[in-house]
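**Protein fold record**
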Amino acid sequence: MLKILTRVMPIIAALLAAACGTVATPEWSAEAEGTRAALSATADQLTALAPTAAPTSTPTASPVPTDAPTATALPPTATTELPTATTIPPTEAPTVNAAPPGDAANGQVLFNELKPEAGFACSTCHFANQEAQLIGPGLLNVGIRAETRVPGESAYDYIHNSIVNPSAYVVEGFPDNLMPKIYAEIFTEQQINDIIAYLFTLK
């Protein structure tokens, strides 16, 4: 087809040049009549085959869901912590015959020191190395014996009361008013604690 067009085009160009602008219907020679018919048929066939317009592809948009699923946040998983064991400190059992807060060495000095206000020393009336009676009771193991003298009263409280208020409890077999009642005035509280600490060492 293209070869035929190539041959015919120079002939058509020559005819147009010869016409030189005159409007005349070209007369085809008998030889060219077959060519003209072929050209006309070819033109008709090409027109029929040629598409009227190049199809344009219109991309179709992908359907977008109206309600896009929203991510649902999962609730945080609660971490179950094991309860920590609470250490409860053991309750200290009451220490029997616990030494009072005093200086036993100074208490020994005070026990043997003559007090002019009383007229004698503690050691004047009490043995420190035995339980036998001198004038007052012997004080060996007094910390142990004092624990059972008065129900509900500790050994420390019993001995403290026996020094500052000797008539509060009188041991059976001993007369009242034998022990001077002025030691709360003669000794300071610290000195009394020192004497009691010394008495707790008498074992």
